[in-house]
């Protein structure tokens, strides 16, 4: 079993839809949870991070962490074609250099 | 402009021919790392470096070497490449090591094919 599981998709939605991206994990010691966005032929860029359980909102993006279920989500409201990318979840222990990534979900938002 | 650069961006080579992928950052970051990205497996860490002359293995270090002689540079060396090292490689740097609030900056990637 992988330490971090993420549905690779692909996921295709119409412009304006609400998108839900999810990851599950097995290591209950993870403390920091991140979402990266990776455009085609580019390196990943950090989109959001959260510490422990709870929600965090940044514009059209909301990150949720449910540590009791070992489940994290990224919601994108009013999705735009420019949101088309691969989204990677990542997580790490507190004060640790070892980051674990999901396989990434490829999202396409159609105009 | 703050950035991480990698060279070359694309490389096709043959089994056993030593190669080096360079990585350089202009943000004075202490922490740098190398990842490989493979379909269905996501990003896996190869090596990381906490500072000059301080390096350590990540998840998949076999077949790779690194060095950190200067703060800005962190080359990845494949002394005898094999076809299973065909992958997309990313270098990354950050001001603080992962596990604390941080931003990890990734380079544009190097696509390596070993025949």
How would you sum up this structure, described in words?
- The complex is a heterodimer of chains A (111) and B (115).
- Chain A is 0% helix and 56% strand.
- Chain A has strands spanning 4-6, 11-14, 19-25, 32-38, 45-51, 54-58, 61-66, 71-76, 85-92, 99-101, 105-110.
- Chain B has 115 residues and is mainly beta.
- Chain B contains no helices and eleven strands.
- In chain B, the strands form two sheets. In chain B, strands 2, 4, 5, 6, 9, 10 and 11 form a seven-stranded mixed beta sheet that branches.
- The chains are: A mainly beta (111), B mainly beta (115).
- At the A-B interface, β5 and β9 of A face β4, β5 and β10 of B.
Termini Cα gap of chain B: 36 Å
Query: What is the tally of beta strands of chain A?
Result: 11
Largest sheet: number of strands, sense, barrel closure of chain B: 7 strands, mixed
Please work out how many helical segments of chain A DSSP would assign.
Answer: 0
Shape of chain A: globular
- Assign the structural class of chain B, choosing from mainly alpha, mainly beta, alpha/beta, alpha+beta, or little secondary structure: mainly beta
Elements of chain A, N to C (H/E)? EEEEEEEEEEE
Strand content of chain B: over 45%
Task: Give the end-to-end Cα distance of chain A, rounded to a whole number of Å.
Answer: 37 Å
Mean pLDDT of chain A: 92
Task: Catalogue the unreliable spans of chain A.
Answer: none
Main sheet overview of chain A:
6 strands, mixed
Structural class of chain A: mainly beta
Shape, principal axes of CA atoms of chain B: globular
Question: Measured on Cα atoms, how large is the radius of gyration of chain B?
Answer: 13 Å
What oligomerization state is this entry in? Answer: heterodimer
Query: How many individual β-strands of chain B?
Result: 11
Order of helices and strands of chain B: EEEEEEEEEEE
Helix coverage percent of residues of chain B? under 10%
Uncertain residue segments of chain B: none
Task: Give the proportion of residues in helices of chain A.
Answer: under 10%
């Amino acid at each position: 079993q992988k330490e971090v599981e993420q549905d690779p998709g692909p996921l295709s939605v119409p412009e304006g839809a609400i998108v839900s991206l999810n990851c599950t994990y097995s290591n209950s010691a993870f403390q920091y949870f991140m979402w990266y966005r990776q455009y085609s032929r580019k390196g990943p860029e950090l989109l959001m991070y959260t510490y422990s359980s709870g929600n965090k909102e940044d514009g059209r993006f909301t990150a949720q962490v449910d540590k009791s279920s070992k489940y994290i989500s990224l919601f994108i409201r009013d999705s735009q074609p420019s949101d088309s990318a691969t989204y990677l979840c990542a997580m790490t222990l507190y004060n640790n250099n070892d980051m674990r990534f999901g396989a990434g979900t490829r999202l396409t938002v159609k105009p | 402009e703050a950035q991480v650069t990698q060279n070359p961006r694309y490389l096709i080579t043959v089994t056993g021919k030593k190669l080096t992928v360079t990585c350089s950052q202009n943000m004075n970051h202490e922490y740098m790392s190398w990842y490989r990205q493979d379909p269905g497996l996501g990003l896996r860490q190869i090596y990381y470096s906490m500072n000059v002359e301080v390096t350590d293995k990540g998840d998949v270090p076999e077949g790779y070497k690194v060095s950190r002689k200067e703060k800005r540079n962190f080359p990845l060396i494949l002394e005898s490449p094999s076809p299973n090292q065909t992958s997309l490689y990313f270098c990354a740097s950050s001001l603080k090591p992962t596990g604390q609030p941080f931003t990890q900056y990734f380079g544009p990637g190097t696509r390596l094919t070993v025949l």
